[in-house]
Amino acid sequence: MIEASDAVRGRPVGVFDSGVGGLTVLHELLVRLPHEDYVYLADSARLPYGDRSPEQVAAFALEVAEELLARQIKLLVVACNTATAAAMPVLRERMVRTTPGVEVLGVVAPAAVQAVAATRRGRVGVLGTPATIATGAYAAAIAAIDPFVAVTSVSCGDLAGRIEAGTIDEPLVAEVRAHCAPLRAAGVDAVILGCTHYPLVRPIIQRMLGPDTAIVTSGAPLARQVEHVLGARGLDSRAEGEGRYGFLCTGEPDAFCRRGTRFLQLPLGAVERVALGAAVAA
Predict the structure, then answer these.
(1) What is the per-residue pLDDT for 262?
(2) Confidence (pLDDT) at 86
(3) H or E element: which one contains 182?
(4) Is 249 marked active-site?
(5) Residues of the chain with pLDDT under 70
(6) 195 part of the active site
(7) Domain total in the chain
(8) 177 shares its domain with 128
């Protein structure tokens, strides 16, 4: 095992998403690795990523990574399904080229591994944003693990936006029911929630799919992977007690703070506004 200096071990883990959805991932990290420090960046001025082209998302992700690297992070966690699907190759290339000591982890692979382990009939469903589903990232990740698992992917339109708005009503339930119908028809017995917003409506999804369908979210398996990587690289913090966590956003801090508390299930505190790229600076 590689041993890092205490100064490097004490650096924060960087986490990013286009908005508040990735806070469901940060929540799992705070629970599993409470002694670590974290800095979370929400690119909320340019959300939703789910409606963007893969090229745009990759460009945004690189800008976010540069900002977090400037904050001396020791690991980068892409807590966004769309960014993971579209930008992991370019992010890893950037790290290998200029910052080889910083690993990049995303949400797709850990969830795919858990879904393959959970399915009994070899039929897995994926609910995701249009951009995530269009990349085929989950189907590819599952095929790499077990090529005999059948995957049914459903593009869920602006479900993430409706969840972020915070209104749980009959139209939302009807929308979730419509998205789940193809999964029921396909006979899936494990479903990946391929957007970090979707865990907030997990009870509705579970009701539509039935109690025997395993619901897979990315937060917990990704937190286990972060724990493993930090330990294997000798980067795990030696601090005792609770670590610190801070927040950056490219949009309005007050709006992010109001919505974010529901997703993180902990107080956010102060939120620092940052500008990334010409689109945000304008």
Answers:
(1) 85
(2) 92
(3) helix 170-186
(4) no
(5) 1-4, 278-282
(6) yes
(7) 2
(8) yes
Q: Which of 80, 156, 180, 249 is catalytic?
A: 80
Structure token digits, residue 8: 């490097």
pLDDT at 205: 97
- Specify which residues 76 forms β-bridges with: 14, 104
pLDDT of residue 70: 95
Predicted confidence (pLDDT) per residue in 213-271, tens digit: 999 999 999 999 999 999 999 999 998 899 999 999 999 999 899 889 888 988 898 99
User: Same domain, yes or no, for 100 and 139?
Assistant: no
Position 278 scores a pLDDT of 56
Question: What confidence score (pLDDT) does residue 2 get?
Answer: 56
**How would you classify the pairing of strands 214-216 and 190-194?**
parallel
Q: Catalytic one among 156, 195, 249, 257?
A: 195
CA–chain centroid gap for 40, Å, is 12
Quick check: 23 and 86 in contact, CB under 8 A?
no
CATH code of the domain covering residue 195? 3.40.50.1860
- Within-domain flag for 1: no
DSSP string, 34-53: TTS-EEEEE-GGG--GGGS-
Distance (Å, whole) CA 282 – CA 277: 9
Ramachandran bin of 123, using left for φ above 0, alpha for ψ from -120 to 50, beta for the remaining angles: beta
Residue 147: asked if its preceding bond is cis (omega within 30°), the reply is no
Enumerate residues 6+ apart whose C-beta is below 8 A from 235. Answer: 4, 8, 9, 74, 75, 229
Closest by CA to 246, choosing from 60, 48, 42, 76, is 42
The predicted pLDDT at position 282 comes to 43
Global pTM exceeds 0.70: yes
Smallest CA-to-CA distance from 246 within 12, 8, 10, 7 is with 12
| Residues in CB range of 181: below 8 A, 6 or more apart | none
CA–CA distance from 266 to each of 147, 200, 222, 244, 251 (Å)?
40, 15, 19, 12, 20
